[in-house]
């Protein structure tokens, strides 16, 4: 089975960006966290990955497709189950409700109830099925998700640093789940910061040191190499030796800083007053400055030349509402009508449609190569290039319904995948060219050109959100690092778009 490839990662690199605009303008924002990670995961393989907890958390998110790498590619069409206690510690779902939702996400319709009946033999489920997950200890959450992993049909399982929550007597539960996964020919990623938690299970080993692959290969040789590294480290006698220990390896993670250091030495030696790198930064800064000034000018012009009609530009026109020829950009409208039809296409709430402004108070929907007049009251105007309020998904999660909040990592896996791949993986009640509605859960996947571009779901505590952000907009739009969150207040529903 080892020759059947489940997942392939090529040159996966991830860099953190600074939140400070000045550092981003001066090209000082990136700090490498992961660099050039390459791996292949095969059926029946248990790949143990050793590293620090922070970087392993990022590896988990990238491999479960909830975080995009800065560069590199991740190739897999297989189903992935990510097991991480941190994902569930704030959940308000009861254990019983969480278990049913967990099974519904991964199993065929009609199978769930049979599995729930079998859970009467799972002690942690029976003891806590009426308790909220947030009330459980991290150990109990770990035991629960480990047990549930044996009841679902997936190709790849990621065990993310679960050993830290388990007592010595609990290790048999983890061992049972890993052995079960191997017998079912699953691929297993075992992410652990301690080598002791990898040695009993893995049949292949990768060591991440300072975000780089320091070893990849057989477990025995890898353990020997790591233990030799620990012995060398334990021989350090003072602070100076500790600072220089492993220095050459650390420096390769900060090539930008090393390049800057070398350029500084050249400058001092040759008394050069300007360096190429500074010229580059200056040019970038000037260009960005003029872009910001131009953007601000456009925004001010839009504000200055508007009436009380939702911010549309005033245009000199005849009484017959003549068509504007100099503004034919295709923008987007998020449907607020329960049912809109254009030709053979049917749209419903929060489906996206390309629109074109044709006059001061008139818009056309651009559908299937044709244009259809649409009432401005039937959509939320959305321009991805606009300067929307900045936020993040983690900040906005408390204002989302538990159906999404408690399982957002799973649902986010299907963003930017094909509609066919989505429909093969979930149970759904309704589907058309614009949407796929999940069975039994108030969650809808929205489609554009047969690709999932967004997810809509109910909101919660929206008044607190509006008060916190002091927003006066009827339907607030938040810009995320790689997407948008749009709140349709009338229906109390979010649309999450990830690019």
Automatic annotation (TrEMBL):
Signal peptide: none
Cross-referenced Pfam families: TagH_C (PF22096)
Superkingdom of origin: Bacteria
Keywords: Membrane, Transmembrane, Transmembrane helix
Spans through the membrane: 282-301
MF-aspect GO terms: ATP binding; ATP hydrolysis activity
Residue ranges occupied by any ABC transporter domain in the UniProt entry: 7-235
Coiled-coil region list: none
Presence of the UniProt keyword Nucleotide-binding in the record: no
Name recorded for this polypeptide: ABC transporter domain-containing protein
Organism: Aliicoccus persicus
